[in-house]
Design brief:
It is a single chain. By secondary structure, the protein is of the alpha/beta class. The protein has 2 domains: 8-128, Rossmann fold, CATH 3.40.50; 140-282, Rossmann fold. Helix content is 31%, strand content 21%. The protein has helices at 17-33, 53-65, 80-87, 111-119, 151-164, 209-218, 233-240, 264-272, and strands spanning 8-12, 37-43, 71-77, 91-98, 124-128, 140-144, 168-172, 224-227, 246-252, 277-282. It has a 10-stranded mixed sheet, sandwiched between helices. The protein starts with 7 loop residues before the first strand and ends with a strand.
């Protein structure tokens, strides 16, 4: 049977505060992308056959907040990680929620989100409980490994900044000696927080021009702030997330059966970032 594909933004919904934050963020992103929003509730087979009554309420609330947005509701039975990863094949983005920083047991602590990351080749955005839709004009932050500057990762970050009409801050390790915290598939990234988004003095020239040239040509209106600063990557990214609309990191794709490789930098960012985090798989 031929699979009918309608590109959309999909938000996983389970009635938790984290999933409601994810749905709110996904609605705004779907509007900016001009795509339908699918609110997806996955019911585990051994649980009650009833649907989630809050799903319809969430859909109604988002329709009222975003007139003209095509909001769809889908409820299916199955293992959440497997179903989410399967249906993500039709999604431009899969958006999942998590508990607030410091609280144990949320999807970013393991379980569902980690299993989805291991199964899907689509970008996954993780939204923290209480984050809401966030401020779209705040900077987009890209963590870049100069040893492996992947075009899909860079393109995702450029496009996100272009949609928001905001600055793209690219932070990386440059030629600093690598330590244990930097040797991760997400690259070594380092930055320091700042109180405003305006121009600032950079301590060192950053990304080689050929790495960004094609995206600067495709999206010339995106202001790029390149930074190469010393410090612990994970701590700096977490600090920088406080004033960001989105943090973008990469994940190296691995052969089927090996799962997603989460290094220490990504692990910390996913658990502690206050801004939504986009995890973009790449070669």
């Amino acid at each position: 049977m031929t699979r009918t594909v309608t590109l959309c933004v999909t938000a996983g919904c389970d009635g938790s505060p984290g999933s409601r934050a994810a749905a709110a963020w996904a609605a705004r992103e779907a509007g900016m992308l001009g795509l339908p929003l699918v609110l997806l509730h996955v019911r585990e087979p051994e649980r009650s056959s009833g649907g989630d009554p809050a799903l319809g309420e969430t859909a109604g609330l988002l329709r009222s907040r975003h007139p003209g947005l095509d909001v769809r509701v889908q409820q299916v039975s199955g293992r959440p990680a497997e179903v989410l990863a399967d249906l993500a094949r039709d999604a431009a983005l899969l958006v999942l929620g998590s508990r607030a920083p410091g609280r144990a047991g949320g999807p970013l602590a393991g379980s569902v989100a980690r299993a989805v990351l291991a199964r899907t080749d689509r970008p996954v955005v993780l939204v923290r409980e209480g984050a809401g839709a966030g401020e779209p004009s705040a900077p987009v932050v890209l963590g870049l490994d100069l040893a492996h500057p992947d075009a899909r990762l860079i393109g995702f970050a450029f496009a996100a900044a272009a949609r928001r009409d905001t600055v793209l801050r690219i932070v990386h390790d440059g030629d600093h000696p690598r330590d244990g915290d930097l040797s991760t598939p997400y690259g070594a990234v380092a930055a320091v927080p700042r109180p405003a988004y305006g121009p600032r003095t950079l301590r060192r020239p950053a990304v080689p021009s050929e790495v960004l040239r094609s995206w600067r040509e495709k999206l010339p209106d995106v202001l790029v702030a390149e930074e190469n600063l010393c410090g612990t990557p994970a701590a700096h990214l977490v600090d920088l997330s406080r004033d960001a609309s989105l943090v973008v990191i990469g994940r190296r794709s691995r052969p089927a059966g090996f799962g997603a490789r989460l290094g220490p930098v990504a692990h910390t960012v996913l658990h502690r970032s206050t801004a939504p985090v986009a995890v973009v798989p790449h070669d």
